[in-house]
């Protein structure tokens, strides 16, 4: 049998690891920041109706320009955006990939600020774009001075900023984004996957007059639509024109388009649990210190917490109780998604029961470290 290393793959892919967040069928899954609430049944019924109509036409290719969907997304975002400002793809991961296919690639670089979303560097590698990094300030913040110094030092073709940032939950001040934009002659992409959970302003307010700024969004998190795979961006119409150079024709299936348009018509219902999720997040943050952990402030639907003696052991001890959280590879830290009230209670109860037990003694299991 042939193994991966025997194949004539690209030299720059040798030795790399694929994305691999565990998908385990346990009762409490709080490891990939999904909205754990099921979508309302009335909305589901409407989506199925839209799918039934779309299915009747799948003998034809779908609308290559996904016009209805871009109209729905523009209306959802507001801020005076029109369909010309909108682009969509199969998850925001594909948005990031298409962006790097157009503006990155061999001989070009993208700057990121770890710890950040693990897919940023993986997509950089996959597109042959050099991934360069710079340090954050204390508390995982990034000041305008820090971002400008990094851009001047690295001279990247593209800058990726994630706000609120995964896995830390940190949101960036708009001053940092403006400073980054002014400092780079290249593309600035703000990954706003968790924007609906944040209290502060979105970078959408900065788009006007900034043709090199891209705001990436997704229906995977707050919108409770991760399984449908729909990510999108808002930018100057010239950016969407550029993306047409690399997108595969008909990349968004007629079913994806129909389901997404139907879901967006019910945006308030789809987002109805956001406040509840934020309340669970705040409850986790308020409770963890009494258990000896140090949670970071979060503007998203997850909490990164420090003070974990042995993250691997704690991960395994929770896993044995049917609770899946995330070891993001930051020493003495773990990340947990804020789910339903019941999931939060079960997670916090399990952590409480571990207190006093030595989680150090838990035997090593399979490696589950992923950013
Ligand atoms: C989850 C996440 C995404 C979402 O990816 P999709 O492909 O849209 O599901 C994008 N960016 C960040 C920072 C994320 O955490």
Brief write-up:
The protein has 12 helices and 12 strands. It is α/β, with parallel strands linked by helices.
Key features of this structure:
Aspartate Aminotransferase, domain 2; 7-stranded mixed beta sheet; alpha/beta; 2 domains; 12 strands; 35% helix; 371 residues; Aspartate Aminotransferase, domain 1; single chain; 13% strand
Structure description:
With 371 residues, the chain is of the alpha/beta class. The chain has two domains: 22-38 and 268-370, Aspartate Aminotransferase, domain 1; 41-265, Aspartate Aminotransferase, domain 2, CATH 3.40.640.10. The protein has twelve helices and twelve strands. It has helices at residues 41-55, 67-77, 92-103, 118-126, 144-154, 174-183, 237-243, 254-264, 267-270, 274-287, 311-320, 341-354, and strands at 28-29, 86-89, 109-112, 130-133, 158-162, 187-191, 213-218, 231-235, 294-295, 302-306, 323-324, 334-337. The strands form three sheets. A seven-stranded mixed beta sheet has the order 2-8-7-6-5-3-4, sandwiched between helices. Strand 5 (158-162), helix 6 (174-183) and strand 6 form a beta-alpha-beta unit. Helix 1 packs antiparallel against helix 8 (254-264). The longest helix is centred in the first third of the chain and has 15 residues, at 41-55. It is globular, with a radius of gyration of 21 Å. Mean pLDDT is 94; it is low at 359-371. Bound molecules: pyridoxal-5'-phosphate.
């Amino acid at each position: 049998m042939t193994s991966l290393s025997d194949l004539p793959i690209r030299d720059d892919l040798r030795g790399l690891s694929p994305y691999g967040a565990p998908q385990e069928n346990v009762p409490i899954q709080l490891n990939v920041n999904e909205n754990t609430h099921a979508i309302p049944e009335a909305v589901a019924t409407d989506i199925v109706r839209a799918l039934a109509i779309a299915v009747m036409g799948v003998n034809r290719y779908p609308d290559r320009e996904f016009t209805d969907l871009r109209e729905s997304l523009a209306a959802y975002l507001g801020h005076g955006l029109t369909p010309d400002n909108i682009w969509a793809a199969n998850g925001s991961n594909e948005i990031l990939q298409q962006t790097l296919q157009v503006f990155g690639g061999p001989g070009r670089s993208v700057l990121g600020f770890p710890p950040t979303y693990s897919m940023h560097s993986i997509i950089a590698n996959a597109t042959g774009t050099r991934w360069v990094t710079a340090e954050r300030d204390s508390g995982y913040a990034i000041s305008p001075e820090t971002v400008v110094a990094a851009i001047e030092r690295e001279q990247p073709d593209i800058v990726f900023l994630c706000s609120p940032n995964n896995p830390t939950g940190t949101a960036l001040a708009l001053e940092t984004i403006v400073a980054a934009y002014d400092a780079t002659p290249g593309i600035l992409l703000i990954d706003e996957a968790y924007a609906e959970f944040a209290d502060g302003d979105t970078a959408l307010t900065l788009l006007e007059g900034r043709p090199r700024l891209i705001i990436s969004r997704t229906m995977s998190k707050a919108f409770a639509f991760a399984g449908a795979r729909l990510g999108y961006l808002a930018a100057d119409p010239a950016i969407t024109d550029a993306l047409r150079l690399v997108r595969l024709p008909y990349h968004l299936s007629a079913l994806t388009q129909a389901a997404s348009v139907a879901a967006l018509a019910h945006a308030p219902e789809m987002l109805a649990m956001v406040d509840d999720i934020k309340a669970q997040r705040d409850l986790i943050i308020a409770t963890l210190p009494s258990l000896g952990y140090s949670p970071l402030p979060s503007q998203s639907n997850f909490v990164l917490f420090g003070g974990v003696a042995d993250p691997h052991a704690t991960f395994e001890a929770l896993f044995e109780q049917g609770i899946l959280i995330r070891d993001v590879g930051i020493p003495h830290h773990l990340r947990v998604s804020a789910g339903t009230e019941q999931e939060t209670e079960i997670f916090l109860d399990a952590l409480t029961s571990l207190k006093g037990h030595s989680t150090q003694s838990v035997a090593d299991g399979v490696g589950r470290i992923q950013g």
